[in-house]
Amino acid sequence: EEVSSFTESPGGEIEIIDVTDNSQSPIAAILKSLKFRDDDEFTITVAQQRNTEKNVEIYHNELKTDPEQRASISLRRAAHRQYLVRGLHYLNYHFQGLDASQPWLCYWIINSLDILGFVPDPSENIENDKDIVPHQTLSDIVKFLSSCVDKNFGSYAGGPFQLAHLAPTYAAINAICVVGTEEAYESVDREKIYKFLLAMKDESGGFRMHEDGELDIRATYCALNTGYLLHLLDEKLLRNVGSFLSSCQTYEGGISAEPGNEAH
Fold first, then answer.
1. CA distance linking residue 66 with residue 69, whole number of Å
2. Which one of the record's GO molecular function terms can you name (predicted)?
3. Beta-carbon neighbour count of residue 125 at 10 Å?
């Protein structure tokens, strides 16, 4: 079966492109344009880049020439589920470097499970569905996130007994929204988080990640996202945000992390 796509030519005519034809394939053209240009210089990095590109080409060519290979592409949902659920209960020592990112681990895992369709709608009775994440597991996530709240600031830290920080606050609130249960929403102290957001607000219009912390685009996004999800955004939180963002635009046209840095 011919695999085709349609594009409109400059003259307005519809042109049929066979995407399995390497000479016409937009994907092939993209791969070619992305190839690393090393100017015949050799380094270990260049060698690794060349090997990576060759490996990508091998799989691309197999899929391009073999219809059965294309039809066999699948997402192994059950295997992903097993890996993700295991991560909620156990992580090996390789993850110790993420000790200050524990709410992020909860968010990454529960969000992935939700995308795969394994997080239940709170209104549905799914106790007999062994593939769906049990309500008890969702409750355990909420309880763990509550243990990450900094008692001094009332917002979320990177782990129990750590410092309140806008990044894990963002992760925790988004994880709670994915869980979506009444218990999850009731665990959030909106008033204290609002006070924390105000405390992180800078005169420039941006936000700091934590007390005396970095003042940058990341912190500002985390603060605004958290405020939006919790319906906290008001004139005080939004004051001069636009000016701060504008001050981060560079001569390159892009946005830097903070005023004076390169666009990224």
1. 5
2. metal ion binding
3. 9
Closest CA to 220 of 170, 172, 174, 171: 170
Between CA 225 and CA 173 the distance in angstroms is 9
Residues 6+ apart with CB under 8 A from 203: 240
Identify the pLDDT of residue 31: 67
Average of per-residue pLDDT across 141-161: 97
Q: How many Å is the maximal CA-CA distance in the chain?
A: 66
CB burial of residue 1 (10 Å; 0-12, 13-18, 19+): exposed
Nearest to 103 by CA among 183, 170, 161: 170
Q: pLDDT grade, residue 129 (50/70/90)?
A: confident
Q: 197 or 61: whose pLDDT is higher? A: 197
Q: What is the pLDDT of residue 126?
A: 66
CB hemisphere CA count around 241 (13 angstroms): 21
Q: Provide the 8-state DSSP code for 256.
A: B
Q: How far is CA 156 from CA 55, 58, 97, 175, 196, in A?
A: 42, 46, 19, 12, 10
Q: Where are the chain's structural domains?
A: 4-71, 77-247
Query: What does the pLDDT look like over 171-222, one tens digit per residue?
Result: 999 999 999 999 999 999 999 999 999 999 999 999 999 999 999 999 999 9
CATH number 1.50.10.20 is the correct assignment for the domain at 77-247 = yes
